[in-house]
Structures are given as C-alpha cells and as structure tokens.
Design goal:
This protein has one helix at 92-97, and strands spanning 24-30, 48-54, 57-63, 87-90, 107-114. It is mostly beta strands. The termini are far apart.
Length: 115
C-alpha cells in the first residue's frame, strides 16, 4: 500500500474523460492489476480492447478499470490521489510489449485507440 494521499490536501478532480479521437493522446503509467495492487476495481463498462501506440510499437490491451478521479484516496485505489484525465495505467506486460526499458518507466507519452 502506498501513502500518497495527504490529509487536508486538496487534489484536482475531473468530471469527464478527455475527448476520444481516432488516436487519443495520453500518458502511459505503470500499474499493478493483481489482487492488492494499485490498479483499482473493475467497472461494468470495461473489458474492451484498446490499441496503445508508444516507443515506435503498438500493443492491444484489455481495459479492466476506469479511473474515477473524483473518488480516490481509498483502499480500492491503493490510497493514491485522484488521477488526471489523460492517463492510461498499464501492467508490466504492456510495457514489455512496447519494449520500453525499465529505466524509461514509469511514464511514457502515447496514443491509444479503440479496437
């Protein structure tokens, strides 16, 4: 468990996601979706595939969680602060498929599209 949320600190929240286009710009972040990880809980709109483009490569990935930036700092989200509206959390497998060296993690500018 991380200790990212600070008592009395206010965090920005977003009421909607950024606009989705053919290739939506975002920042890829490293996350764990294993039990007890920081990936959050599955939502009913998920389990759809997207294609992530980064580091000169692409990979198909399944969406299993949607970040709710208005409800964070809780056990379901590993007590992390609210996330921006342009983040794509990805497992180590996605990073490996994009062949991003560990030294260049945990953030990478990417594009993604629905498949």
């Amino acid at each position: 468990m991380t200790d990212c949320c600070k008592q009395g600190k206010f965090y920005p929240t977003f009421k909607c996601s950024s606009r989705v286009s053919g290739h939506t710009k975002a920042v890829l972040t490293l996350s764990s979706f294993e039990k007890g990880g920081d990936g959050g809980v599955p939502l009913n709109r998920c389990l759809q595939n997207i294609t992530i483009y980064g580091n000169g490569r692409s990979v198909n990935a399944m969406v299993i969680d949607e970040c709710d930036s208005t409800a964070r700092c809780d056990a379901d989200h590993d007590y992390q602060p609210p996330c921006p509206n342009n983040i794509v959390d990805a497992s180590k497998a996605v990073w490996k498929s994009l062949r991003v060296p560990e030294s260049d993690r945990p953030e990478l500018d990417i594009y993604w599209s629905q498949t």
